[in-house]
Amino acid sequence: MDSQSSWGSSTAAQCQSAVDWHNANWAASSPQLGPTQGAVSLCNTSQWSIFRSATGNTYTGPMGSRTVTCGPASCSLSPGAQTTHNVTQGYYRSANPTTGVPDLKPDGSPGGSSVEDPPASMCVNSCVQTRGTTVADLGDCWISKTPTATGLYRGSCDWRFTSTATSCTETPAEKPMINPTATVPPCDGSLGYINDKLTCVSKSAPTSGVPPRSKTIVEGNPTAGSSGGSTAPAIPASGSGSNAGGPSSTTDGTRVYPDGTRVTPTPTAPPTGTKSSVAGQEQLACGAPGQPKCAIDETGTPNGAEAYKKSGEEMTASDGLRNSTLASITSASGKDTNWAIPAWAQPQAGCSPWNLGTMPVIDFVILVDMCVLKPYVLGVMNFLWVFGTFLACLGMMGRVMGKGVS
How far is CA 348 from the centre of its chain? Predict the structure, then answer.
């Protein structure tokens, strides 16, 4: 065993050779290292021990232990090979987000005010791979319809990666984004039920300046690290809304556009046709290349020509009454439009002095004669009547011209 001290720092293949050597060189009754103690467990737990015999095949204690530092699993992709992988972008508090920025990042930290793409280089499936940066490299972006145990909804996107053929080990920062076994972040606020849905309500105000969602969202929860897509095994039938993917639902693959429009994928019609609403009849497949144009049989459907006939007649009658009433208002018929007798043409009464009585003793009659002023008063009054009439006409014209017609 001492000659195998080189096992203390070795690759995964050398770790497995240590297990094989042990099982081949010790008696059958000795403790065997099974599969769970082999290349996987042995290389992940950092410690292994082998017991040796004191007398015969009886084991009394460990002969020694080795600290195992296993190298990464080898990359099986060739340089330049391109693959698509589903990457967790973050978590939302709603299954119908209105913004593109997740409420929480994959590791559970606050989402911030801008969308963060995955790192330019990541360890995916034991290979160092570079993430594409063009529009064509970003596939569908998904939103889970089932909340996690912490009331959050996983958001993910399908990204195209290019392999460098360099082996690697996943870092703790990459695990929440690409590893199906990653733990979902805890609720950063209050966890409870709203409309029978487990919901995480934030204790802080929403982040200001968050841009509206500009990309189409696809409903579904593919497994992190998978190739994406809306069918199994990318979306498992069961699940809890986490990186493991699933659960699947009847709305998987439904596209929700930024304006709220939902487009559900149409199942492929069987060649023999699909049942119509009329018993015993079938509607042949239509709309696809080589198939007839889709149309709805509208036989017997009212054309709507008589739908508003009664209302139209009532409106016509009311409009006629309005026109006739308006004509009677604006017409001069039945209205006194004469000037009558002008003030200056009216006959004038006679004039006599005012007798204020006779003074006693001297027998003097007191008379006040205003008749001498009559011609002058008539002239002034006639002028005032004419001028006042002129001003009244101007006022009426101004009120009519200055008021809108209702």
Answer: 90
Predicted TM-score (pTM) of the model is 0.51
Query: Would you say 238 and 221 are in contact if contact means Cβ atoms under 8 Å apart?
Result: no
Cis peptide upstream of residue 206 (ω within 30 degrees of 0): no
Distance, in Å, from the CA atom of 219 to the CA atom of 230, rounded to the nearest integer, reads: 9
273-278: long-range contacts, CB 8 A cutoff, minimum separation 24: none
Query: What's the pLDDT tens digit per position in 96-133?
Result: 877 778 989 999 998 877 778 899 999 998 999 999 99
**22 has pLDDT over 60:** no
Residue 123 in contact with residue 173, Cβ under 8 Å? Answer: no
User: pLDDT tier at 36 (50, 70, 90 boundaries)?
Assistant: very low
Strands (E), 135-228: 138-143, 153-167, 189-194, 197-202, 217-219
- The CA angle 103-197-90, to the nearest 5 degrees, is 20
- Residue 385 half-sphere exposure toward CB, CA atoms < 13 A: 13
* Mean pLDDT computed over every residue of the chain: 75
In whole angstroms, give the CA distance from residue 168 to residue 124: 8
